[in-house]
Amino acid sequence: IDECEENNGGCDHFCRNTVGSFECSCQKGYKLLTDERTCKDIDECSFERTCDHTCINYPGSFECLCNKGYILYGLTHCGDVDECSINNGSCEYGCMNTQGSYECVCPPGQKLHWNKKDCIEAVKCLPNGKPAPRAQLVCTKSGDAEVCSLSCPSNALFLADSENYTLSCGVPIQPDPLAPPIKQKAKFKIKDAKCHLSPRSKEKHRDSSRQNIQGGQFPCTDDCQVTFVNLKCDSSKKRRRGRKSPSKEVSLITAEFEMEMKEEEASDSCNIDCVRDKMRQKLQIAMRTLRKSINKQQFYIQFSGTEYEVAQKPSRITEGADTCSTGQVFQDGKCVSCGAGTFYSGEQEQCVQCPPGTYQDMEGQLSCEPCPSTEGQGIAGAKNVSQCGGQCPAGQFSTDGFRPCQLCPLGSYQPEPGRVLCFPCGGGLMTKYEASVTFRDCEAKVHCASGHYYNSSTHRCIRCPVGTYQSEFGQNYCINCPGNTTTDYDGVTNVSQCKNQMCGGELGDYTGYIESPNYPGDYPSNVDCVWTIIPPHKRRILIVVPEIFLPIEDECGDVLVMRKSAVPTSITTYETCQTYERPIAFTSRSRRLWIQFKSNELNSGKGFQVPYVTYDEDYQQLIEDIVRDGRLYASENHQEILKDKKLIKALFDVLAHPQNYFKYTSAESKEMFPRSFIKLLRSKVT
């Protein structure tokens, strides 16, 4: 009877008539359940090692995605993108690739522009003659007490939790060998106080009615300008010995200050070393004053107009909403950090939008960063520099990257907004018009196809060298392969041709696997992989080859062989040079295995991923009896078991450690394997 004629034999997908019976099977990406009728999607994402980064399961298939700064190769692997090979990362000067990102670097005496790509002269004054915003430490005498205040107009970073906080202000100085920065580090103790930045109370304000007038009439003055400050506050309870005194809190503040050496202040009467000593003295005096002010609890930090005390006496801490750390507000019963585009105002005790002309790209901060543009354009609540507004569009440039802008002159182009220069086409090439935005606008003598790049000095198209690719036409660079991959040949047009050369796998004492390089992507040419499996004493090896893809076209050019040792005449367990989509299981004919995979430079294929298990040699006869029985491979359902990663893992787990059989209930076993398979095993075991 052909059972498939009626209602497809009750099968979900395919029905195959056999003599005296029939068989259901499923489309690729689905597995047959143990009722031997229903098909269910295989969730590939639930396997180990399916994707390097993110895995998304679809009905019948899956997809791998990579994190930012990484690109997919070999179908499931993620490699770091070498942004520096893409037009030098768009950097004006130097480019440094990092894992998942990159950085532009500048020559000595210049610093990075805010767009993080261009280099500008490291100037001390802003264009309007005012000093560049720097951290300022101002100490004044009020009555008999010293009051110090540190203002932080830009580059502020604040991180806090319940016990500690760190706070940095300004930019650490690039070490300049001629004039290294002056650094000073000091530790202060504050007794009976907790690390908690709290707005300065109003009463204290009146006592010291601002006697200090900051800055003078001169452009670019510095009172005590510090280029970089790093403050750390740590409250750790220290118990004193003694019966009566309760535990007192001691907060420890560690402060680091850096000052930039100003070479221009050196003169005949006072050379550079003398200037250095003067500045060092100045910083040390400031530190002494600071220590006095901290002891009297008169040290404040100023963020966007609010002064904060560095530590708080427990008496003033009220319960309730104040339990959130600074930079957080109490919302829906929990503490929430102020988001990007806002800052925490200590006076209003709430999150406030950044005013136009400032931005904030971090959360939980106490101020907003000033926009680089001088005009107060831009929106309120800007979350990054590009929302500051007023930037030059692509194809244009200006001295600071903001309007008013000039068009890129003929013979140059600029693909990005907010830049201070245009890139020349090179080799005397012109563009068709001004304000060009890509190298393609340059009137090259020849248009290069993908897999090639244009050399503007010889005006020729050159094939991308091995290890690089270019998928677009008309470009003047090739992109390096991601991570540690390379290509089999030159002139490659797609990142999928970038292949990992490493021989894959993990060799364990009990279970492990070997896989072709770059699996499940195509393996590279001319590889020679060798693995050696040496099982522990009194154990034997069982191997399952679920499927193997080796192109048959080139007379056995790609070979997988397993034998006793490297000697060609030693006992061979398995050898193949072609594709088998049917699985096979076998025991090793020798106690240890030497495995080699070789490929030539012709065709390639997906290769293989072959798991193995070592089992107690007392079971040798039983295992061999099972894997040599034709019924193990007779039906498609049984073949699918050997291809099912989860089931193989469970079977191998029990073979390696038989006591683990009791981890699985009989109901679980029934759900995992079809009746016919359990019947086959049971007959063998009994």
TrEMBL record:
It comes from the Eukaryota. Residues 41-79 form the EGF-like domain. InterPro entries: CUB_dom, EGF, EGF-like_Ca-bd_dom, EGF-type_Asp/Asn_hydroxyl_site, EGF_Ca-bd_CS, Growth_fac_rcpt_cys_sf, NOTCH1_EGF-like, SCUB_EGF-like_domain. Keywords: Calcium, Disulfide bond, EGF-like domain, Glycoprotein, Repeat, Secreted, Signal. Disulfide bonds join 45-55. GO terms for cellular component: cell surface; extracellular space. GO terms for molecular function: calcium ion binding. One of its GO terms (biological process) is signal transduction. Its main location: secreted. Pfam families: CUB (PF00431), EGF_CA (PF07645), Ephrin_rec_like (PF07699), FXa_inhibition (PF14670). Residues 503-615 form the CUB domain. It is found in: Secreted. PANTHER family: SIGNAL PEPTIDE, CUB AND EGF-LIKE DOMAIN-CONTAINING, SIGNAL PEPTIDE, CUB AND EGF-LIKE DOMAIN-CONTAINING PROTEIN 1. This is CUB domain-containing protein.
